[in-house]
Amino acid sequence: MMKGKAGKVIRQLTRSNTNVAASVASKSESFANGTSAGYIEEMYLTWMEDPNSVHPSWNAYFKQVQKGAPLGAAYQAPPSITTGAVYKIEGSVGGAAESSGDISKNVEQYIALENLIRAYQVRGHFKANLDPLGISEGPKSFAITEAEDAARLTVPDILAGADDKVFNLPEKCHVGREGETSLPLSEIKNRLEAAYCGSIGVEFMHITSQDQKEWIRRKFENPEARRITPEEQKLTLERLVRSTKFEEFLAKKWVSEKRFGLEGLEMIIPCMKTLIDTLTQLGGRSYVMGMPHRGRLNVLANIIRKDLDQIFCQFDPKLEPTDVGQSGDVKYHLGASVEQEINSEEGMSHETINHASKELINVSLCANPSHLEAVDPIVVGKCKAEQFYRNDDEGKTVIPMLLHGDAAFAGQGVVYETLHLSHLPFYSVGGAIHLVCNNQIGFTTDPRHSRASPYCTDVGRVVNAPIFHVNADDPDAVVYVSKVAAEFRQTFNTDVVIDLIGYRRHGHNEIDEPMFTQPRMYQAIKKHKNVLDKYGDSLKEQGVVDDGDIQELIAQYEKICEDALAKAKTETKLEFRHWLDSPWKGFFKDDQGTWVAEKLPDTGVPMETLQRISDAISVPPADITLHGGLKRVLKGRAGLASTKTADWAMGESFGYGSLLMDGNHVRLSGQDVERGTFSHRHHVLHCQKKDKGIYLPMSNLSEDQGKYTVCNSALSEYGVLGFELGYSMVNPNSHVIWEAQFGDFANTAQCIIDQFLSSGQTKWVRQCGLTMQLPHGYEGMGPEHSSCRIERFLQMQNDDPDLFPSDWKEADFGIKQLYDANWIICNPTTPANVMHVHRRQIALPFRKPLILMTPKSLLRLPEARSEWSEMGPGTQYRRLIGEEGAASKNPDNVKRLMFCSGKVYYDLVKERAARGFENDIAIARVEQVAPFPYDLVIPELEKYKNAEVYWVQEEHKNMGFYDFCKPRLRTASNWSRRVHYAGRDSAASAAAGSKQVHKIEQDKFMNDAFRKGAKGRLYK
């Protein structure tokens, strides 16, 4: 039901349809009796699209109703209509004068024809022949019945017997060939059936743009537009041979291997190739693809054109990888990237017809685990970054192509999250092409049990995407839909969905028995001829090819496969770096992913740089009216700068700003990142008097600085973190940061963290420098606003806690640790360290994800300040900050050495002073928790050789850092020192929901930290 004024009008009309009809056609009793509520609603919706599309009397009536006139007073009768009068209706066929009765009937018939045409446009897809197996009872048998289907496309009674009557074609109907302005009703129906009820079902009337709807009408209703030439058919046949025979070759050579083949949907390959060809003709130059495992090997072989020997060697159990330290992933999860020659005139990739004009296109397929749709936002983010570096503001040259399974497209929430980004300013890529590989089953689940919507593609309606359903056993229809989808995307820069409906010839994998759960479907599949044979027969009947042509194509491709297999057995080595989906040319000094460095880099900056950044973030812009509170914030920053000290916000700004001034691109994304969740950042200043009047201080640092993008995201973690991961993959010299509103909100992005960040380099040889900022700290804000669940990140750290680092004294130990780590986990407590850790991400000669805990209370804590000198030349990130107070002067007398991380340090220092233990207790802060800084911890342990060793944390014992740090502290002491614990007791919830309970817990663990020890030297 429509909302707002339009909905109100429809409700008025449908409740009072008899009166409406009587008033509009006062002299036509039959017209009044034949008017139904649904009929009037259809006519009103048609009028809203185009007032001229309905009869003038209805146009006048609807205009009055829209202005608020009462129903009885809205109608204004045309002055020329009188009983017995004769006149000619404008647009009627023939020149004879007509009586008012004839006019009334003509009006009824034209309106009925308009509604019939609209019914085909809106509902024709329900009647289309979309199931190759012929067993489907509609898009979903319980969603729409066959009877309803038929009724909605039945010719109205008023048109009964009028098949031979010639009608002028309405403006929004394009079934006429060139020069045809009128057709018999029967021919109009036939052409509408061909347009909307054949092998293609088009869903597009939900789109709000009239231009887009009109464009689609012309593409499908015009009989001339849908023609496929014999040359195109031959090319489709060749591609279909490759697609089909590749699967048959694998099935023949590796009978018992899982490969998740395309059998039943072999047309995916010609479909994708046609998309690329058409997009390339329209300006496309780079295609970033993402897909699940089904069909991936075929796509790698026939779209990416990965060397077949590299694919085949993945099946050889005797081959050992040559990449040291890489575990790899299964062959149907891997990605790849390749540049291909194309002919710019013909737009053909691979099958180059004419070599007179060549260009390069890049085609890449992103690696993806079995979490089927997890790659979607990564692909879109990668496209956004490529568009940024190509200055492709409209998204014409870099295009995302996403392949989906039918069950996953309907069932996985990240699909919606990704679609929802499509029109957001800092996330839009000008539309993605979504190709749903619909095999009519999800693993073993019937569609009736896996979704509530008629089609698996209904989520695409949310973003006004046109949806083209097409029968995969009709190659010509698939090719046409592919061309239209590509043209639509390039014309309107928005998402488009192709629902390629086929089947799955085997079970979920090639060794499954599908008859267990789908006996009816697989009985039909056993009898069903494959699409290559069917299409070959069709082309032979048309005289496009003969049997010899087909056999020659098959023989040529089979030889290619046999030659590649022979090479795989004798020459090919399994090297995972060949499967990079995002190669960074020239970044690694030997292009092998290794590093060359002797020590951790200095990340300090000149004082002039700090001063310039400080000035930029402290001085109010002249042409922006700021909120009074912001003026105070900027004034406070200026005051800090005058004393050459920095708080957290300033330290962070120094990190970002100095990278920008070095020419690096910095992108900060997440929920409320412009001001910061806790109002500390304010990197986008909003004018209080002018809408959209904004000022970015960090974008005005120097003339040659890098671009700073700071963007509030949709309320999404899974989708947006995946997007930023994809963005970070393109250029190693970009600093890409995703910030959670609260640290534990990253829970809903766990799939990205587990599958891509923690293990991406090991599985796919893909380094990544993405930074995750996770606010963390216990301030009595409850279990959802305290912990970023750091224990989960630490649990996935790849080092061995029991392995004593014999090389800990070596100069390169710290950087070697970082290189060997799967990621870096830091919990800084000073603004200086915040600056350094961001700069280090770019200064390192390799890239690792950074899990960065950020504070809440420390943002404004007076003690959490840094001198500018700590950020000047020759300084670097301090991985561990040892005791620097009174206890460090007499280490032999220190009774207790406390290790901690994060905000709790300031609580401990305050408590130590209150209890008078400054000389008795040393406190060391672990600022880089992983990889564990043995080279700094061991000297600290040796320095306080008489002290008891404690790990103190504010997190619960079964959470936080304790389980990670305890064994490493034991290893660092060569297993000679016991590690005591002080902190909250184990619990199920991350924190207390009551501030009172929080305070009780805080007091208790502070008492535990300073309680009487084994040697009796301390007391409460």
From TrEMBL:
Reactions it catalyzes: N(6)-[(R)-lipoyl]-L-lysyl-[protein] + 2-oxoglutarate + H(+) = N(6)-[(R)-S(8)-succinyldihydrolipoyl]-L-lysyl-[protein] + CO2; N(6)-[(R)-lipoyl]-L-lysyl-[protein] + 2-oxoadipate + H(+) = N(6)-[(R)-S(8)-glutaryldihydrolipoyl]-L-lysyl-[protein] + CO2
Listed InterPro entries: 2-oxogl_dehyd_N, 2oxoglutarate_DH_E1, DH_E1, KGD_C_sf, ODO-1/KGD_C, THDP-binding, Transketolase-like_Pyr-bd
Keyword Methyltransferase among record annotations: no
Oxidoreductase found in the keyword field: yes
Keywords: Oxidoreductase, Thiamine pyrophosphate, Transit peptide
Cofactor(s) needed by this chain: thiamine diphosphate
EC top class named in words: oxidoreductase
One Pfam family linked to the record: 2-oxogl_dehyd_N
Domain Transketolase-like pyrimidine-binding: 646-861
EC identifiers of the protein: 1.2.4.2
Family designation: Belongs to the alpha-ketoglutarate dehydrogenase family.
Function, as annotated: The 2-oxoglutarate dehydrogenase complex catalyzes the overall conversion of 2-oxoglutarate to succinyl-CoA and CO(2). It contains multiple copies of three enzymatic components: 2-oxoglutarate dehydrogenase (E1), dihydrolipoamide succinyltransferase (E2) and lipoamide dehydrogenase (E3).
Name of the protein this chain belongs to: 2-oxoadipate dehydrogenase complex component E1
